Task: inverse folding
């Protein structure tokens, strides 16, 4: 006697044979779902909205110079740059969890962009550059 046809539209896995059933502990990950990317994204975005500035004034003779330090941008830049460097190192040494998709070109470009934005925030935090949109 043949078994009844299975309903492919149901959400239940009860009638699926063990060969077709997905592993319960295997999480779905995007190719960019690395914790380093998440931390770097936060380190890049937070200095755009939060500022902790301190003005430093130096006087040499009659010339006075003022430089403004932004500690949020400074810390965010350091963290983003470190995450970008670690992601680049991780990509070049191919240290990825088993089962993840290794997308080296995407990860290399992403690591470069993260490091570039981190360096930009670092320069802005030190008061060496001033960007119009970022305050």
Result:
């Amino acid at each position: 006697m043949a078994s009844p046809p299975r309903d492919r539209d149901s959400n239940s896995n009860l009638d699926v044979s063990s060969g077709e059933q997905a592993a319960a502990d295997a999480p779905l990950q995007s190719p960019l779902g690395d914790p380093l990317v998440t931390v770097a994204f936060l380190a890049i975005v937070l200095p755009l909205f939060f500022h902790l500035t301190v003005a430093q004034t130096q006087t040499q003779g009659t010339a006075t110079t003022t430089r403004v330090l932004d500690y949020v941008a400074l810390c965010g830049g350091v963290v983003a740059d470190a995450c970008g460097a670690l992601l680049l190192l991780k990509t070049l040494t191919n240290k990825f969890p088993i089962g993840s998709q290794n997308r080296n070109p995407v990860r290399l470009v992403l690591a470069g962009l993260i490091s570039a934005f981190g360096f930009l925030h670092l320069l802005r935090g030190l008061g060496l550059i001033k960007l119009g949109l970022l305050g």
About this structure: The radius of gyration is 24 Å.
